[in-house]
Write a structure and sequence with these properties.
By secondary structure, this protein is mostly beta strands. Helix content is 0%, strand content 46%.
């Protein structure tokens, strides 16, 4: 979840919508992801031209560290209110039978 104003690091696997989710939030990928210690994985961001930001996710699953997910969320002030979700790769190990739940959603509450 990307929250623009507030949020929490507490983990809770609940159905959406949920009351604890911030009024403005992005949900690019709804699955139990994990950053494996000692790996090049992480959540990174790049600012370009003073008007654009790209969040790059390179993650794995907590229960299948050989599953890799690479996706981005982009925003430009030149297109207010428009977020671009790009799913670069999804590598699921053979022993893990489930596909991730990709949820492309934006929540904005006045």
């Amino acid at each position: 979840i990307i929250s623009l104003f507030d949020g929490t690091t507490a983990y809770s696997n609940v159905e959406l919508p949920a009351q604890y989710i911030p009024a403005v939030a992005l949900f690019p990928f709804w699955d139990d992801t994990y950053i494996a210690q000692g790996s090049p994985q992480g959540i990174f961001y790049t600012l370009t031209g003073g008007t654009d930001i790209v969040f790059q996710y390179y993650l794995t699953r907590y229960d299948a560290t050989d599953a890799y997910y690479n996706y981005t969320v982009s925003y430009s002030t030149n297109q207010p209110g428009v977020f671009t979700f790009t799913y670069v790769s999804h590598l699921r190990p053979l022993h893990y039978p489930y596909s991730p739940s990709v949820l492309r959603a934006v929540r904005s509450q006045a």
